[in-house]
Design brief:
The structure holds two protein chains of two kinds. In chain A, 8% of the residues lie in helices and 47% in strands. Chain A is globular and about 60 Å long. Chain A is mostly beta strands. By secondary structure, chain B is an alpha+beta fold. Chain B has a single domain, classed as Alpha-Beta Complex (endopeptidase fold (from Nostoc punctiforme)). Chain B contains five helices and ten strands; from the N terminus they run ααβαββαβαββββββ. In chain B, the strands form three sheets. Chain B has a six-stranded antiparallel β-sheet with strand order 5-10-6-7-8-9. Chain B has a two-stranded antiparallel ribbon with strand order 1-4. Chain B is globular and about 80 Å long. Classes of the chains: A mainly beta, B alpha+beta. Chains A and B meet through α1, β1, β3, β22 and β28 of A and α1, α2, α3, β7 and β8 of B.
Chain lengths: 460, 208
């Protein structure tokens, strides 16, 4: 007897529904995918400015703004129509004088410049300024720094009696550490620090650290989304999980143990975020920053972030309260606030000179002009120390680099030594050094792992 | 009535599974769905500022190892591609592909000419970061790092980024395709003084 193979009616109904579902879903998801990828060019206006933070009163001061504007990428080579005004005043009070920004015909592209009137540039109190730039074609405008008249950029006069000449840097073995206070190999184990993974991505790991007055070392192990904390004398670190992205970030630890993590890779629509955690890693606050951030440090009133393109230190949390974007901008400062109501300002000008200033409540306390026959790159650290500053700057050639540690006093150079770069893995841009008490700490790395070395300044 | 319920269940399950499958595939098919292989447009003049504008329009558009195609919707349309897997066809350039396209170089390594590759034109170009570091190709020239200005590049054996602007503390704002977890954007970096990095200049800017 022939057996007929039939599909039950209930299965047929299920299959029919499934087929209809597939047929309906394909065009729908394709349409959604298309909507997810619109190709919409928007007008842009961006301006960059290297602030004239410390100027020589005897020299003319030109303020320059490089401006980029377009209505579409296809218009990239079209002339930018932007113009603007810079507002300048002597000192940091009173009315601003408006100066029209003029095109620099010798510059590649659109550079708007204005010369600060000699009477203002030579003011013993320095001068303050901000710029407003707009483009009729793009309909956009930009103010630098973002706080405008409420938080202008400050320019300080350079004193002539604090010149430090470094001469030519003799690269070689740097000073040996007084102690290695923390050490970890690369990996994900309990005593290891992670390396970020990815093709075409150089080694990145242990992206920042901090040290408190008691010698507790905290390393941000961003790849493993945690921090490692070494207490003095401990062989192994404590682990504190953190809810972070796992990408390059800076770290600063408050005196109350609060952890501040500046994440510079952020979600769509966000420039950067500052995350605050308790000492136990419990998340407290997340603060959106309206501009890019490059460093976070804890000041007397809370965390401050160095921001671009404003080029100012701005608070993100004040007295425990997260600040909105406009509050952050209005509180922007040229100097980084430190204890005692003081501020520190640094400026690398040209390839061979770094200027630094220490400000008090009544104005500039001291300035230093450091020149070198070897090129200088970034200032990794500038912290008050005794009556002056400790300054760590990188000296480099095409194929060599090391850090130069300068102890600066009121008459100039008090002490100096060099340290090997030990920068195998990338970190946040200025997070390789910290000063705690009279000891300088260096976060170093090799192909084997990371370490934190201590250098006692009193010994030198 | 039961048949209607079974039809509805089958329909819902199929929609869910099909949509999920398509979405998963979508993550790796940005190039297939959006990009083209059109011939480039030779251009006679090109300035550093124009190249910055081209780079700015590529911001936020993601990163793809071996990639070189992006739109302009200010987001990575293929986020989360496995960083260890190449050729997933996602959005964005990698560091060297981004540089090649922003510098408007040509596939002819003996040429210093400028070729405009539109953003949806898939092209990586012949240079890796290491080749840029070695200044290979007629359009690329070794440069003292201390002399590097905007839209010159710092290149290592594994990465390259272009200068957007200098900072007061001696760091640089770099525009770069950094990695899958980062995308393409401007960040402050300390490449200039790092001995692993070399300076590279694109030759032939219309205004030096």
């Amino acid at each position: 007897m022939e057996r007929r193979h039939t599909i039950p009616r209930r299965t047929l109904a299920l299959l029919a529904g499934a087929l209809a579902g597939v047929a309906a879903a394909i065009p729908t998801t394709a349409a959604v995918a298309h909507v997810l990828a619109p190709d919409i060019s928007e007008p842009l206006l961006e301006a960059t400015h290297l602030p004239a933070l410390i100027t020589d009163p005897s020299e003319p001061v030109d303020l320059a703004y490089d401006v980029y504007c377009a209505t579409d990428e296809s218009e990239a080579s079209a002339p930018c129509d932007a113009n603007g005004t810079v507002y300048v005043r002597a000192g940091d009070a009173g009315a601003f004088e408006a100066l029209a920004l003029r095109r620099d015909p010798a510059a590649p592209g659109l550079r708007l410049t204005a010369r600060v009137p000699a009477g203002i540039a030579a003011s013993r109190a320095g001068f303050s300024y901000y710029a407003a730039i707009s483009s009729e074609a793009s309909g956009r405008s930009v103010t630098l720094p973002a706080g405008g008249s409420g938080a202008p950029q400050k320019s300080l006069p350079l004193a002539r009696d604090a010149a430090v000449e470094l001469g030519r840097q003799a690269f070689g073995p740097g000073r040996e550490a007084d102690a290695r206070v923390a050490e970890a190999s690369w990996g994900s184990g309990p005593d290891a620090v992670g390396l970020e993974q990815g093709r075409n991505l150089g080694p990145i790991g242990g992206s920042s650290f901090d040290v408190d007055e008691s010698g507790v070392v905290t390393v941000l192990d961003e790849a493993n989304r945690r921090l490692l904390r070494w207490r003095p004398g401990a062989r192994s670190p404590e682990h504190v999980p953190l809810s972070i992205r796992g990408t390059l970030a800076d770290l600063s630890v408050g005196t109350d143990g609060t952890l501040y993590v500046l994440e510079t890779a952020a979600d769509v629509g966000r420039a950067a975020q500052l995350r605050a955690f308790g000492a136990d890693g419990v998340a407290h606050d997340v603060v959106d920053l309206a501009e890019r951030g490059s460093a976070v440090r804890v000041g007397p009133d809370g965390p401050v972030v160095l921001r671009q393109p404003s080029g100012q230190w701005m608070p993100a949390i004040l007295d425990g309260r997260p600040l909105g974007a406009s509050e952050q901008s209005r509180a922007g400062r040229t100097g980084r606030p430190v204890a005692g109501g003081r501020e520190i300002v640094v400026l690398r000008t040209g390839a061979y000179e770094v200027r630094a200033a220490l400000l008090g409540a009544n104005g500039t306390q001291r300035t230093w002009r450091v020149t070198s026959d070897t090129a200088l790159a970034e200032v990794q650290l500038a912290e008050p120390y005794r009556e002056g500053l400790v300054l760590v700057v990188r000296a480099y050639t095409e194929d060599a680099a090391e850090f130069v540690v300068l102890v600066l006093g009121h008459k100039g150079l008090v002490g100096r030594f060099s340290l090997d770069a030990n920068d195998w893995a990338e970190t946040a841009p200025v997070s390789r050094f910290r000063l705690a008490g009279s000891s300088l700490y260096q976060l170093g790395s090799t192909p084997d792992g990371i370490f934190v070395d201590r250098f006692d300044l009193e010994v030198q | 009535m039961r048949a209607a319920w079974r039809f509805a269940i089958g329909f819902v399950v199929a929609v869910a599974l099909t949509s999920a499958g398509t979405a998963a595939g979508y993550h790796t098919q940005f190039v297939a769905n959006n990009c083209n292989w059109a011939a480039p447009t030779p251009i006679a003049t090109y300035t550093r500022d124009a190249s910055i504008t081209v780079a700015l329009y590529a911001r936020h558009e993601g990163y793809q190892w071996g990639g070189g195609c992006w739109d302009d919707d200010d987001r990575d349309d293929s986020p989360g591609d496995p960083p260890a897997v190449g050729g997933t066809g996602g959005e964005g350039g990698d560091c060297s592909g981004f540089t090649f396209k922003v510098w408007r170089e040509t596939n002819d390594e003996d040429s210093t000419a400028f070729h405009q590759w539109w953003r949806l034109r898939f092209i990586h170009g012949p240079y890796t970061a290491a080749r840029y570091q070695a200044a290979e190709g007629a359009a690329n020239y070794p440069l003292s790092k201390s002399a590097a200005i905007k839209m010159d590049a710092f290149a290592s054996g594994g990465h390259i980024g272009m200068i957007y602007a200098p900072n007061a503390d001696g760091t640089d704002q770099i525009i770069e395709a950094k990695g899958e977890a980062y995308g393409t954007n401007i960040w402050t970096r300390s490449y200039r003084g790092n001995a692993d990095y070399s300076g590279v200049r694109r030759l032939g800017w219309s205004q030096p």
